[in-house]
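A reminder before we start the practical. When you read a complex entry, don't treat the lines as separate problems. The point of joint prediction is that each chain is placed relative to the others, so the output describes one connected object in space. Small molecules and nucleic acid strands, if listed, are placed in the same frame. In the example below there are two entries. Take a minute to note the order of the lines before looking further.
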Amino acid sequence: MAKEFVVTPWEVKGDIDYDRLIKQFGVKPLDEVILKRLEKLAGKLHYFLKRKIFFAHMYFDSILDDVEKKKKFYLYTGRAPSGPVHLGHLIPWIFCKWLQENLDVPLLFQIPDEEKFFFKEGLTLEDTKKWAYENILDIVAVGFDPKKTKIFLDTEYAGHMYKYACLAAKKTTLSTAKALFGFTDSNNLGELFYTTMQSVPAFLPTVIEGKTTQCLIPCAIDQDVHFRLTRDIAPKIGYSKPATILCRFLPSLAEGGKMSTSIENTAIFTNDKPEQVKNKILRYAFSGGRDTVEDHRKKGGMPDVDVSYQYLTYYLEDDKKLKQIYEDYKSGKMLTGELKELTIEVINKFLKEHRKKKDKAKDHIEKFMLRD
Amino acid sequence: MAKEFVVTPWEVKGDIDYDRLIKQFGVKPLDEVILKRLEKLAGKLHYFLKRKIFFAHMYFDSILDDVEKKKKFYLYTGRAPSGPVHLGHLIPWIFCKWLQENLDVPLLFQIPDEEKFFFKEGLTLEDTKKWAYENILDIVAVGFDPKKTKIFLDTEYAGHMYKYACLAAKKTTLSTAKALFGFTDSNNLGELFYTTMQSVPAFLPTVIEGKTTQCLIPCAIDQDVHFRLTRDIAPKIGYSKPATILCRFLPSLAEGGKMSTSIENTAIFTNDKPEQVKNKILRYAFSGGRDTVEDHRKKGGMPDVDVSYQYLTYYLEDDKKLKQIYEDYKSGKMLTGELKELTIEVINKFLKEHRKKKDKAKDHIEKFMLRD
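Here is the predicted structure of the whole assembly.
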């Protein structure tokens, strides 16, 4: 029996069947043909692609057509700020940076500070703005090129955005919004309208690149529904349909679902100190190990359900080393404790570097910001 | 049997029973007590008040409390641009000007250029912007003080407005919006969201006046529903409930309903030439006269249903003269043709002056404009 799971922009839970999601959302798998084309153009493939962390797309082939014809495109991604950045948030950003570097492409980075305000009780616009600027430090720390990257908050850039949101809003009936997002009469008007603001960066090629260029949106697959709507609207108002390239969710420390800011001790934040990271992984990371050492040595571990191992697939670039760990764990040669220590080391090494860059980011934010 | 009528921000039709509207909308009649208070403070009463053209209000007494205590307030009115300005549009503006002059009060003038775009098929944002700037000439021609009057288009001032619209949107459920505006699943997301933008100027005291001041909105009663919602939201987000002072509709040339841009030959536009005004009134103005001169002389005319006479109540300031006309027409002494000639003269005199000021307005618009 297929397990139940839910994937919406506001809720991800259960044991996600990504193949079913591809069908359900009407997107396409990132197949070998398309990966080969990208490899030829970029000169290499990011390990997120080889490991199918990015696993689905819409119109990414059309972006590759443009690149082959030396026609420009631009990247658009985002971050809805309501708390600290965790390891899951960084995945699409790291991938954007790789695309920016290897395909020489500009990036529009949206911070929809009103989204979480609309959807969460008790959050003010002051709260989300505070988180926005904290999160921007993490974004800048990823290493984007300030000459080719623009970041904006919706409430600070609405003067430019609102008229495009109006164009999108006129083309979207309540009926369509209900069908796509499951809205009911108890949703507020902000929740209803918000999706039009998430469409807007797909209509802003002139901000960052030539007028007729298409955009590519690297993001986690929960955001796909917004861009399904954007693709429906775009040709009606004179724009290209945005392409998407979609990634899986970094699992939460506990089994199932995605890493989430709102559930304590399921996420590793970029601000977590090495000791905290260690404790969280040791205490909470769901283990694919056996109940006793004896049993583990005999039957072997289960890397495919082990959360520490999953984290290594996202954060350990070395393919050979990863393969070795997989085999050692599966054979029972490597114990859960050893796997966890290794993961702690990899994550803490990454975070140490990240925090260094984050500290320096403070002085560089203004180079990136777009405001009205 | 009570006649059926409809009054919404998007449709006014039928023979309007204003007493019933007062009950239906939960507003208060402008009674003698409140008018006496205003007269004492302003030194006089505008004839729109004496003739009950402005006939209802909410919290206008609280505005008068403020004036008595020498506490400031500000005016807010608006114009949704989708065509030329007609004589009906001018009524709240003329009244705003009178309030500005006699109570020394600043005015925020909203031009929601996205509203008609959302609600009318075939209108673009370029169309409504074009009309916005044409209509602003009419607004400036009314004679507002540029030092105390600020005009803005929603699409040009959204950078300031959007965050306040978000505050309003979070406090308004779809259920409330449906109940107030009658929305269905076929409405678009812009139509749903728009009311939050119409609330915003009630939350912008700092733009024009002190932080804690209340606003007074002079407008036609069809707009009341928006401000009913604003009054509900305001205290929840830390603002005073806006007060309203509400006027009747200038009748259309044909019997019943209000003067409307969208129905040809029912409206007199400020750009109509004297000959056009003459022809429209002679040909279309619904007459309260009798079928034959003989009958008219015997039974007398019916000024209360005569559209020309109604126009005189809006545009002929001289109380004595108006009373004389009423009596002469009612007694049969004055014929419909004579009444129409008189009305044509009064309207054309007004429009001649208005157009002179409108011609000069071109050079002064920028003194009034607020932009992001």
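Discuss with your neighbour: The interface with chain A takes residues 114, 117-118, 125, 154-163, 166-175, 177-178, 183-190, 192-193, 195-196, 372 of chain B (CB under 8 Å). What might explain this?
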